[in-house]
# Entry
Amino acid sequence: MIPSETPREFISTAQAARQLGLSLGAVQQMVESGKLVAWKTAGGHRRIRQDSVDALLAHTKPQTSHHPQATRPDTDALRVIVVEDDTMLQDVYRETLPQWNLPLDIQVFDQGIDALLEVGRCAPDLLITDLRMSGLDGFGMIRRLRENPVAVDIAIVVVSVLTPEEIAAEGGLPDDVTVYRKPVPFRELHGYAQALISRIRRSRNLQATNAKPA
# Structure
């Protein structure tokens, strides 16, 4: 039975994308994965239940967080999202990154869809991700990020067992994505994070200087 559609019960894909802060493609992926409840009209248009969007906004949380707030609590902190579905590696990231003695705001997710939703709420400075994951894999997540105007400046680092040839066979990655092979090269990631923090600080200092009245 086709549900009776009212403005308060069902919204379009575009409306859902605006509410979630995601691209249309990401919302469509969430419908296909069952994270959003939807149906199609006789004309083939998707209608998404508003309450499923509300529930997703209310209950989708990072698996772990160095700072639980969605917004950056410290303007000097590098906001980092890690996407990895291996629970052992999740623990390794949790234990290792805080030992770097760097200003980091860390969140760890085990699904690409959940990471996309968090990006829609508050874009990170750095995203570290695996490629082969259940559900939306790293390839799909990165494509969705680069489709989203608010996410085009996010620095993306891939850490994967895949060889360059295997990555190319899957369609490749954007040229601005840095790729490391597993096991996780924490020394290189540490240097990358340090350089990114320095670059962001220089950019903010320059912006502050330019904003001062002559």
Observations:
- Helices lie at 13-20, 24-32, 50-59, 87-96, 112-121, 138-147, 164-169, 186-211.
